[in-house]
Structure prediction request, 324 residues.
Amino acid sequence: MTVDEQIVTEAPAAYLERYGLMLLIRLFETEMQRLFLKGEVHGTTHLSAGQEAVPVGVCSALAPDDYLAGTYRGHGHALAKGTHPDALLAEMLGRVTGVCGGRAGSMNVIDAEHGLVGCFGIVGGSIAAATGAALAAKGQGRVAVAMFGDGATNHGYFHECLNFAQVLALPVVFVCENNFYGEFTPMLKVTAGGDIAGRAAAYGIPASVVDGNDLWAVREAAVEAVARARSGGGPTLLECQTYRHHGHSKADPAKYRPPEEVERWLARDPLGVAKARLAELGVSEQELSEVEETTRARMEQAVQSALAAAYPDPAGETATEFAP
Ligand SMILES: Cc1ncc(C[n+]2csc(CCOP(=O)(O)OP(=O)(O)O)c2C)c(N)n1
Ligand SMILES: [Mg+2]
Prediction:
């Protein structure tokens, strides 16, 4: 089946399921915010509300054993790759039932079982990790994906890894979530040339600018890029343009963004865009509400089970290098 056939012949039900996953990420972020304010989340968090279509669209093109490297804005990355919401939320709350036993917290989640090689607090770290995973994946018939922000494209990792991946024709897809800000700085103020996708041309890598708030557009671009990677065609760079609804991290009220800019992006909320498209495809109100209800119940279950779980027992720790 060609890439186009894969997209066109898909039943709306597949997209309805992906809409449910996007909603799960949104609800997860809402709960993270609530639980953070209650003092249940330790350390900081970086919410990805508004950016859900990117990881869901990209991961829908991956096989379960393909690799993904995410960022510190990575709750959506993990959920889209298959990490169980109960295990992810418990991790955020530092509980022993967390996917990393409650030791990683929000920024450093790893879920090897689902191919999540890590979420990285170092800007651009995910690019290097995915490139390394792709080196291993090449011999295994797998593909690796790097998720990273616009800010990471000004770091050495980005340029070094694009070059290396193209020279070795590695099966990697570089996915830039361009949300137009790196912390509090507009992307255009710090990016020479003002164009992220265009940078791939220097390395002979195919690239495209994708509407990152449109699940269909993201999936289509990802299916093509993943097929290229898997068939030995080497890397692709996708610049998915999107927007975060919240500030950079918990400490940021995001006052630096012009209100009309925020309004414009809120009007193109990826959940709203997907809902409208599903209705056009003939999905009924009732089918939508059923998915929404099931997803809310799933999230509620994650919250209850995480809050009921124990904290890790320090006496059971074998590592001593940080002991005084
Ligand atoms: C190597 C490195 N430099 C600086 C930082 C501090 N820092 C954390 S997030 C961030 C902004 C990154 O912006 P972007 O890549 O656009 O991702 P976004 O937060 O928008 O998702 C910076 C500079 C860091 N974590 N790592
Ligand atoms: Mg950014």
Remarks:
- The longest helix spans residues 12-37.
- The first strand starts at residue 67 and ends at 71.
- The radius of gyration is 19 Å.
